[in-house]
Design goal:
The chain has about 650 residues and is an alpha/beta fold. About 30% of the residues lie in helices and about 25% in strands. Bound molecules: adenosine-5'-monophosphate-propyl ester.
Length: about 650
């Protein structure tokens, strides 16, 4: 599959030079930056001056592979860097967050407003017993309180764990328990396409079995009825009305934990990726300013949800550290109509737009008439993240959104990398649709073969990061062995990304997608094992194997092959019931598009499920090599049955 994708990408020969007008005003105008950054540590030391440190660090990097410490001895506070230093000067009256609600309500928080609310909320958390080092889980919609809650935690030095609002009660419970969080911050509900998604009800269900939570703070967003448990639950607005606006930012060590963010891997249990403070803040601030060419007057809009790493690094920490004006939108792009994105760009004169290929493919499908009906002349730079962008979508984005005027930064990175790792610099890098181009200055990314040796230009292999970088994950929460075995064991000292890639004869990188058992659905990582565990939890299921199947809009969709327990009858509605079961266990993002019942799964003689063959079947291709199968007839029968039913 990867080879096919690659061939399609590499037939792409179009090159778009950085527009001269853009270059002339760009924050980075000369390729000399790459040469300067060849001394990586010096480069990162210089970038560290972007921040205000309470105590300066003494050593840039202590590398005890694979454990890194950056800016050793430094003391700082992330919220202080995002707020306090801006309110000392003219930026205090600059819009920090412009919020657009799904129903068209809006709210602007200046840096001063945000500083006040964050300080107050930090005092609320303190009054609930939250201290430096305590974990706080945040389960909120895309509303300013999500950023306020994150920054309030950071202000106290209490690591947050944001759980995407679309995750189920069970997924929330697992994450609370893994982090042993003391406080949960949620909302009554969130607005979703005119309806209400019941966050508090989910939270209540999650808390049945999450004993570490002592208090729940509830933001009133929809005004719907919710049950409040006396002694445990408090309303955000009530607590805030009594809270002092004075709360000094706690100095934390550069290596103190800023947050945990759970992400899927190749096992059934999500990993708590740990990010610390100093290196992370340096990484996200530098990349945000240089890649998005940030100017004071920009209106910057990243459409990700704060529940994902993109929201952490490029809605909250990077942009606010840089004093940017950040737009935040609560709802879906088709509510109330399919021009909602473009109406918002027009309304706020958005100048930088950062979104995902899956969203672009959706707009493409809806048609150019929606963006064409709006004034998009304020846009000057576009970005993408989350998955490889197919050249067709790139060209559409360039033409209909950027109106052939805006450079596109295709940014490759991961929850684990914390910051963008490969990307164009928009004033200097020639763009090739479908390629995330080259590593960011000071970052060493390579394509290696199975022995960990770099492949020659023009070849493909595994994508690795071969030198530590400031925003890198430090460990897996509570499980350093898993950190080592997941990322560093294949080739000692080299970080394995889990992606396959090729670099072309110009040295441009083309990311192909995951080479492990992780599916990328609409730019979000789903572990096949996670979905399989959810399915096997259904009383009728004996065994399940999930794969990623190519999908026009989502990039990949989950397809599941299921064997039923003996004596189970396939009755009407069983497929729907199982899909609903996965939604309840994990969340709608993991819901399989197809569930297919089979008497047996194709396995090797040692019992390993041959997913490659399942992918061939699901995508209707001729079957690849079947010689290692224990029983070749299984796969032929499966193929025929699939062809009949699909
Ligand atoms: O496979 C790569 C893909 O998304 C994975 C990381 O997923 P996650 O940790 O959820 O973070 C997504 C947002 C940073 C990567 O291993 N990916 C991300 N960006 C790109 C990409 N694939 C190709 N091109 C990209 N620009």
């Amino acid at each position: 599959m990867e080879e096919e994708k690659l061939e399609a990408l590499l037939q792409e020969t179009r090159v778009f030079q950085a527009p001269e007008g853009f270059r002339q005003q760009a924050n980075v105008q000369s390729t000399a930056v790459y040469a300067e950054a060849e001394n990586r540590l010096e480069f990162w030391a210089k970038q560290a001056d972007r921040l205000e440190w309470f105590e300066r660090w003494s050593t840039v990097l202590e590398w005890n592979s694979p454990f890194a410490k950056w800016f050793v001895g430094g003391k700082l506070n992330a919220a202080y860097n995002c707020l306090d230093r801006h309110v000392k000067g003219w930026r205090r009256n600059k819009a920090a967050i412009i919020f657009e609600g799904e129903n068209g309500d809006s709210r602007v928080l200046t840096y001063q407003d945000l500083h006040r609310e964050v300080s107050q909320f930090a005092n609320v958390l303190k009054s609930l017993g939250v201290q430096k080092g305590d974990r706080v889980t945040i389960y909120l919609p895309m509303i300013p309180e999500a950023a306020i809650a994150m920054l309030a935690c950071a202000r106290l030095g209490a690591p947050h764990s944001v759980v995407f609002g679309g995750f189920s009660a069970e997924a929330l419970r697992d994450r609370i328990n893994d982090a042993q969080a003391k406080v949960l911050i949620t909302a009554d509900g969130s607005n979703r396409r005119g309806g209400v998604y019941p966050l508090k009800a989910n939270a209540d269900a999650a808390l049945n079995g999450a004993g570490s939570i002592e208090h729940v703070v509830v933001v009133q967003r929809t005004g719907g009825q919710v049950s409040m448990q006396a002694g445990r639950d408090i309303w955000y607005h009530e607590a805030m009305s009594n809270a002092s606006v004075v709360c000094p930012a706690e100095p934390v060590d550069a290596e103190d934990m800023l947050y945990i963010l759970y992400t899927s891997g190749t096992t059934g249990k999500p990993k708590g990726v740990v990010h610390t403070t100093g290196g992370y803040m340096v990484g996200v601030s530098a990349t945000h300013e240089m890649i998005f060419d940030l100017k004071e007057e920009d209106v910057y809009w990243c459409t990700a949800d704060v529940g994902w790493v993109t929201g952490h690094s490029y809605i909250v920490y990077g942009p606010l550290a840089n004093g940017a004006t950040v737009l935040m939108y609560e709802g879906t792009p088709d509510y109330p109509a399919k021009d909602r994105m473009w109406q918002i760009v027009e309304k706020y004169r958005v100048s930088i737009l950062y979104t995902a290929p899956t969203a672009i493919r959706t707009y493409m499908k809806w048609g150019a008439k929606y963006p064409e009906s709006r004034d998009l002349s304020s846009l000057r730079l576009l970005g993408t993240v989350g998955e490889p962008i197919n050249p067709e979508a790139w060209i559409w984005y360039h033409k209909y959104i950027g109106r052939e005027r805006c450079p596109i930064v295709d940014t490759w990175w991961q929850t684990e990398t914390g910051m963008i790792m490969m990307t164009p610099l928009p004033g200097i890098t020639a763009l090739k649709p479908g390629s995330a181009t080259v590593p960011f200055p000071g970052i060493k990314v390579e394509v290696v073969d199975k022995d960990g040796k770099p492949v020659p230009k023009g070849s493909g292999g595994y994508l690795v990061v071969s030198e530590p970088w400031p925003a890198m994950l430090r460990t897996v929460y509570g499980d350093p062995d898993r950190y080592v075995s997941t990322y560093w064991n294949r080739w000692p000292g080299i970080y394995f990304t889990g992606d396959g890639a090729k670099w072309d004869t110009d040295g441009y990188f083309w990311v192909l997608g995951r080479v492990d058992d992780v599916i990328n659905v609409s730019g979000h990582r789903i572990g096949t094992m996670e979905v399989e565990s959810a399915l096997v939890d259904h009383p009728y299921v004996a065994e399940a194997a999930c794969i990623g199947k190519n999908h026009e809009i989502k990039g990949q969709a989950v397809a599941a092959f299921v064997t039923l327990k003996e004596g189970t009858e396939v009755k009407d509605g069983l497929v729907e019931e199982m899909k609903a079961h996965v939604t309840a266990k994990i969340g709608a993002i993991a819901r399989p598009d197809d569930i297919f019942f089979t008497a047996e799964l194709p396995k090797t003689r040692s019992g390993k499920i041959m997913r490659r063959l399942l992918r061939d079947i699901a995508e209707g291709r001729t079957l690849g090599d079947t010689t290692t199968l224990a029983d070749a007839s299984v796969v032929n029968a499966l193929k025929e049955k699939y062809a009949d039913e699909a």
